[in-house]
Specification:
With about 140 residues, the protein is an alpha+beta fold. It is built from two helices and five strands. α1 packs antiparallel against α2. The chain is rod-shaped and about 75 Å long.
Length: about 140
């Protein structure tokens, strides 16, 4: 993720920004739907920011690596857990392939729902999203 955004407010250690869909929209005041919703981003490099400046925001490499590992391993581990649970709870070892498949799919659906819930939960300051550099001093 590396996108342009306009600073709309500056606070201690972070800034409130609006992502810009097109570069021409940065100075536009028409209010069309080309801008996204505002959100706070961290300013770990300590840039001197002012309202109206255009900045590049990015997700930190550590955060992207962590999210990639989580999105791969949680579904994989939940599928294994579903298979094991299907074998444990079927009486007299009468586990069929259909029961195993349903347990694996159920575990995958549950883990996907949990991941979607936590990734769409609103946070005050999104972790790992930060200002990379200043594009326009304005």
């Amino acid at each position: 993720m590396n996108t342009k955004a306009v600073v709309i407010a500056v606070n201690d250690g972070y800034a409130e920004v609006i992502p810009v869909i097109k570069a021409a929209c940065a100075t536009c005041t028409a209010g069309c739907a080309k801008r996204g919703n505002s959100f706070p981003v961290a300013n770990p490099k300590g840039f001197t920011l002012k309202k109206g400046m255009m900045v590049a925001i990015t997700a930190s490499q550590n955060r992207r690596t962590f999210e990639g590992m989580i999105s791969l391993f949680i579904p994989f581990l939940s599928a294994i857990a579903g298979y094991v649970i299907a074998n444990c709870f079927t009486p007299n070892n009468r586990n069929t392939d259909a029961v195993s498949a349903m347990a694996v799919l159920g575990a995958l659906a549950l883990s996907s729902s949990i991941i979607i819930f936590f990734t769409h939960k609103k946070h005050s300051i999104p972790k790992g999203i930060e200002i990379d550099h200043v594009i326009d001093q304005n």
